Each structure stands twice: as structure tokens, then as C-alpha cells.
Amino acid sequence: MDLTDKVALITGGKRIGAVVALALAQRGVDVALSYARSRAEAEEAAAAVRAAGRRSAAIRADLSQPRACETLVTATARTFGGIDILICMASIYQRKPFDEVQVKDWDAALNVDLRAAFLCARAAVPYMRKRGGGRIINFSDWVARSGRPRYTGFVPYYVAKAGVIALTEALALELADDNVLVNAIAPGPIVAPPDTTDEELTAVAHATPLGHWGGEGEIAKAVLALFDSDFITGETIRVDGGRHLK
What we know:
Blueprint (H helix, E strand, L loop, with lengths): L6 E5 L4 H10 L4 E6 L3 H13 L4 E5 L5 H15 L4 E4 L14 H28 L3 E6 L2 H4 L9 H21 L4 E8 L10 H10 L8 H13 L7 E4 L7
Parallel strand pairs: 1-2, 1-4, 2-3, 4-5, 5-6, 6-7
């Protein structure tokens, strides 16, 4: 896929999303980024895209609300004249023992991690059809891609991320005739949560065959690799340093 002058919407505008946005800008893509609460980070990412010579905007959207998904896509298309690429990265990652999980916790994970990806795709595909095709990249998780849970305390998250894989496969089949390729990325130890201790950082590195955390740039490389191919669809690609092998 020639990325020059394409338009991308990334749900999630900080950390990994910011690095992916800049990588796309450096390949000639205009980028819209959504955020729920992290306005400063999203605007900083948008500024970096503009500094790379491409158009960008940070748009607030509560993706737990169905109408917000459609509104976000519509705002992006109106601002940039269309949409070629949708990257669904927005996610809720929360550890909570099973006995403490409430309906609101279940709904929060499923609504943001899974339903929002479906709703954003449903809203974006008509714009992609008008432009002769497009790309959708969803974000799952290396644990879900491995086909079995490995850690306790993540029931809603695991179910949502496993659902993302199924959604990716189903959409890839549904949209093949429209030249819309749909894939997913399943990150492993890429960036540690802010409260990770030094001991936890070391333990994860030791548990990863390649011996270290990946860093945001590895996800950007995977995203670009999927765009470089015109014959990969319906796949979920682990980027985990071999973590699933242990």
C-alpha cells in the first residue's frame, strides 16, 4: 500500500499510539488521534506529526459510548477528506480478582476493547470503499493470541482481546471484496505499566526469550510491515520477543 497522502485514524493517542502516529507521518500519512482523558499526550503526538510535515488532529472521544465511535470517524473524515486506515488501539487494562469483577468492569472492557473496534470499523468502511479500499489494524494481546489465559485477574480483558481476534478474522472475510485488509497485532512485553517495579521489569525480561522489553518502535515496525503487504488479511501477529514460547 502506498502510504503517501493517506489518512489514518488511531484510537489511543499516547505511548505506543504516539510512536505509531509519527512512523506513519514519516511515510506520508495524515493522522487523527483520539483520546479519552490523555489530552496533553494526544496533542503532543499530533504536534509531532505536524512537525514531520503532515496534517494531524487530536479528537476527544469516549469510545465506551456507541455514538462517540461514529462521531469520531465522521469528524476525521470531514477534517481530512476521507479515511484510508483505521488503527484500533484504545484499551482498558485492569487487574481485578474474579470475585471482585462487577458488571461495570465487564462492560468497560468489552465496550472499549472490542465493541468500539467494531463500531469504528462499521463507520469507517464506507469511506474506505469510496477510496477503493483501506486497512484496518486491531490490537489484541499476546496472551489471547496464544489461545489460553496465563494470568489470573484479567477475565474481562482476556475475553475482550480474544474477541478482537475473532472480529479481525470475520471482518477480513466480510471486507475482502472491498479491498479492505483487516489484521491485528498482539503485543507482548513492549512497554511496562508506569507502576512496574525494577524487579518486575527484570522478571519479564528474563521470561522473554529475546531477553528484553520490545519498546514502542517494534509495534510501529509491525504496523508498517502490514501496510507493505497487499496479501495479508485476517491475521493476528504476535510482537512479543518469543514470550509465548515459554
